[in-house]
TrEMBL record:
It comes from Didymodactylos carnosus. The lineage of its organism: Eukaryota, Metazoa, Spiralia, Gnathifera, Rotifera. It comes from the Eukaryota. GO terms for cellular component: cytoplasm; exosome (RNase complex); nucleolus. GO terms for molecular function: DNA binding; RNA binding. This is Nuclear nucleic acid-binding protein C1D. PANTHER family: NUCLEAR NUCLEIC ACID-BINDING PROTEIN C1D, SUN-COR STEROID HORMONE RECEPTOR CO-REPRESSOR.
Amino acid sequence: MSLNKSGRPDPQLEADFDIRAKNVEQCLNELEQFLSPLEKTTYSTIHETISPLDRARYDLTAAYTLNSLMWSYLRTRGIDPKQTQLKPELDRVKSYMEKMKMIIDKQDAPKVDKSAAVRLLRNALWQKAQGKNTKTDSETNENSDMTT
């Protein structure tokens, strides 16, 4: 902290620090309230009640949350988390989250009704072919009339 001429901390800097410290404390309290229901149930109980996709989402979210909290902890201790094994672990969890998102997007993608598509194409091609035949027949009749 910078000191002023009287040897006391700068009041503006001190006030800014107090605001940030209160904000961190409030965020930690909110996190504690959010995570408190997890303390009341066991991991296996949660896993038994949810679908396999939700299990994967739950596990990835838990891994990412714990790694992010560890990242914050290391930063508060003055340790650069990039110099630890935490960065590759976070990258690994992120890659799995992206894979899971691709799976979810693929499941949510509209499905093609193959039989309806075949009927549509067959009928569209048939009408186009009939249009060509009709034109060809009328042109043939006109050409034969001109030659006679």
